Amino acid sequence: MAKGKDVRVTVILECTSCVRNGVNGVSRGISRYITQKNRHKTPNRLELRKFCPHCYKYTIHGEIKK
């Protein structure tokens, strides 16, 4: 049986270079990925290198709040 909170949670990864450069000033045009992480093994924010179709290169995608 599950105890309280789930161990694996769904997180959203967003391109950090698009956010810094301010593509369109709104969330449209920012590359986002959805993945899961283990809350107990990785308590900090997740950062992965993913392909951004708006930057046309591999960039760091960081975890954002829902």
TrEMBL record:
GO BP term, example: translation
GO cellular component: chloroplast; ribonucleoprotein complex; ribosome
PROSITE patterns recorded: RIBOSOMAL_L33
UniProt KW Oxidoreductase keyword: no
Major subcellular site: plastid
Any GO MF annotation of the entry: structural constituent of ribosome
PANTHER family: 50S RIBOSOMAL PROTEIN L33, CHLOROPLASTIC, LARGE RIBOSOMAL SUBUNIT PROTEIN BL33C
UniProt xrefs under HAMAP family: Ribosomal_bL33
Protein's name in the database: Large ribosomal subunit protein bL33c
Organism name: Asclepias aff. glaucescens ShS-2018
Lineage: Eukaryota, Viridiplantae, Streptophyta, Embryophyta, Tracheophyta
